[in-house]
Amino acid sequence: AGKTYTVTGWVYISSGTQVTAQLADSGSPIAGASATSTNGIVNKWQQLRFEYTPSSTINNATLQIVATNGATLFYVDGFAVAEGGSWAQVFHTRNYYGGSIMQSSTPGASVTFAFQGTGAMVGMPIDRNGGDTEICVDDDATFDETSETGNAQTCITYQNEEARPTPTVTRLVAAGLPSGTYYARIRDVEDGVTVLGRNQDDPRLNRYYVGRLSIDFVQVFDDAAPPDSAPGFYNEDAVDSSGTPFLQLLPENRWSQITGRAANKDSGQSRYTVVDDNNRARNTYAGPTAVINVNVPSGASSYTVVVDTSSVSRQNSQWLLVCADNLSGTVAWDRATRTFSIANATNCTLTDAMQTSGQVVVDLANLLGGSLSGQHSIILTTLSKGFFNIDGYQVISNNVLSEGLYNEFLPDTIL
């Protein structure tokens, strides 16, 4: 009792519709302890997976695998029950911070930590072994509780399977929080479907069937919140009367300002860009983050932030995650369109604008889907490696343009 168990296995439906893996106690199905195959997929292996945390000891537990939607001919393979997950230290002096990472080797692996600050990110190298990875943040140490003791947890699932190994990936845990103590949980939620197959919903190859978690480092931020940006135009290095930058860049050591001839096409001949440890602009990183704070007055019908990301280039990061206040949703890959999408997000969206338009348009009303008024943090973090440039931004209230140059890629309500 009190421990979390992960049940995984594979089914192959030759004819029929659906199969369910169900945990039972003395022959009686246990509510919430089951997984069912996708209806209509035949002649292809599918992974069934569920997690269960019993509230009391079960002495006569059995795992039943049954057809649940009419006569079905099916095969099963590799069903197992795991408690927690196994980890190993992997060494690679050149690629990893401190020369090594911790990597899981069984399904159901998770790691939790508490941090004091305003945000955090995790070094998370990705490769063919990576998979669906969920990161949750809460202001209390209990996740998935039925009755919250504080604010509700927020969770986002990243897609970390990649054909080419990329050690320079960080995944944002949180940013723009009020300074305080928070709790984070990172866990494997791999569904057994590869994003590298020929077809949508192809199963992962046997050698990569475990979606491994790779943890290189944890970086915690406790920077003061950036001042609110009122409607108007802001150069990337704009500061308030006390010298505090309006644009917060995380982590600070991963950003630098480019000036002079190298930025002669940028406003003021300058821009911020992501750099390596030798202060050279690089397109090999994913995860650097920018935060802009706004305070929307009561009664505002719209509030838009337009971020100028400098020149359009295929070397720019293709996928930028844009969120208001916190991170949520599940990032998924569509093989047919070769695009990422985000589902179940309450306040986040994905955009490829850095490769197509050079301006990222953040429509706060669409992101929040409700009341606009109050203070909000706009969070931008790259999901794929590539250049990430910022050459200023503009804040637009109630669809009224202030002084500045605007691209045609604006919402129809503005242009």
Describe the structure.
This protein is mainly beta and 415 residues long. The chain folds into three domains: 5-82, no CATH class; 87-221, Jelly Rolls (Sandwich), CATH 2.60.120.260; 232-397, Jelly Rolls, CATH 2.60.120. It contains two helices and 30 strands. The strands form eight sheets. Strands 9-14-11-12-24-25 form a six-stranded mixed β-sheet, with no helix packed on it. Strands 18-21-28-23-26 form a five-stranded antiparallel β-sheet. It has a four-stranded antiparallel β-sheet with strand order 17-30-22-27.
SSE layout and pairing:
Elements: E1 5-15, E2 19-25, E3 28-36, E4 45-52, E5 61-67, E6 73-83, E7 87-91, E8 100-104, E9 110-117, E10 119-123, E11 132-138, E12 154-159, E13 170-174, E14 180-188, E15 214-215, E16 217-221, E17 232-234, E18 247-250, E19 255-259, E20 270-274, E21 289-296, E22 303-308, E23 320-324, E24 329-334, E25 339-343, E26 348-351, H1 353-356, E27 359-363, H2 364-368, E28 374-382, E29 389-390, E30 393-397
Parallel strand pairs: 12-24
Antiparallel strand pairs: 1-4, 1-6, 2-3, 2-5, 7-8, 8-15, 9-14, 10-13, 10-16, 11-12, 11-14, 17-30, 18-21, 19-20, 20-29, 21-28, 22-27, 22-30, 23-26, 23-28, 24-25
Give a nutshell description of this structure.
By secondary structure, this protein is mainly β.
